[in-house]
Structures are given as structure tokens and as C-alpha cells.
Amino acid sequence: MTRRTIKFRFWCEAGKAFVQDYNYNGLVEELFDQRDYILTPSQFTGMYDCDGKEIYEGDIVEVLHNSKRGTVAFKFGSFCVYYDDPSTLSFAFMHSLPEVKIVGNKFERV
Questions:
Q1: Parallel, antiparallel, or unpaired: how do β-strands 54-56 and 39-48 relate?
Q2: C-alpha separations of 45 from 7, 33, 95 in Å
Q3: What's the rounded Cα separation, in Å, for the pair 63 and 44?
Q4: Full strand arrangement of the beta sheet holding 8-12
Q5: How far is CA 102 from CA 22, 27, 53, 69, in A?
Q6: Model confidence over 64-101: pLDDT tens digits?
Q7: Cβ count near 19 (within 10 Å)
Q8: What is the structure's pLDDT at 34?
Q9: What does DSSP assign to residue 94?
Q10: 18-55 per-position pLDDT tens digit
Q11: Residue 14: Cβ within 10 Å count
């Protein structure tokens, strides 16, 4: 079994951009305690889209085999895609999807 790289990117709401080259030296669980109102962490899923881009929590992806869009989130101990269309299943596990393409992220809505 291969282990995925655990890494994060951070959204700065004040600057409306992702912080580049941020070195975080604290405990991982402290990233998600909601006390930091400046930076919002997004964890790398360990997966890549069809163009080779890293997929992070909060990314909006299009599932290529059915053209449905959804947002990537960590739930039920796994990364999932929560679909935007309420007429479909509410979510799918990332590892079960054949191919996805990143079309945006929840911070910079498309």
C-alpha cells in the first residue's frame, strides 16, 4: 500500500488568493480548530485530475464520464465529491470516480 503525500494549501480571505510557499510548523489537528480567521486550510487528496493538477479539498471538479460537477470534501473517512445537482446522488467517493477535471474551487466560485 502506498501512502499519499500529506500537504495543504491555505486560502487567505483578505487577499482573495491562496498563500504560496507557506511553511506550517504546528500540529495538523490545530489547522482545523477554526480559530484562524485569516487562513483556511485545504488538504491534498493524493489524487490528480486528468491534466495532472493536484486535487485539494474545496476544489470544484467535473466528473468526465457523466459531466456532473461537485465540490471535493473529506467525509466518512474519505475524500468525496458532493454534487451540485440535487436531482442526483448526493456524493461519490473520489477513489471510485474514473476521471475528473478541476474547474474551480469553492473560494473562487466559477
A1: antiparallel
A2: 9, 20, 10
A3: 18
A4: 17-19, 8-12, 39-48, 54-56
A5: 22, 29, 8, 9
A6: 988 899 999 998 889 999 998 777 668 889 988 989 99
A7: 14
A8: 64
A9: G
A10: 987 777 777 777 776 666 678 888 889 999 999 999 99
A11: 8
- For residue 33 the three cell numbers come to 480548530
Task: Please state, rounded to an integer, the average pLDDT across all residues of the chain.
Answer: 85
Question: Apex CA 16: angle with CA 28 and CA 37, to 5°?
Answer: 45
Give ∠ CA 68-104-26 in degrees, rounded to 5: 120
CA–CA separation, 65 vs 40, rounded Å? 31
- How open is the CA angle 56-93-61, to the nearest 5 degrees? 45
∠ CA 70-110-43, nearest 5°, is 55
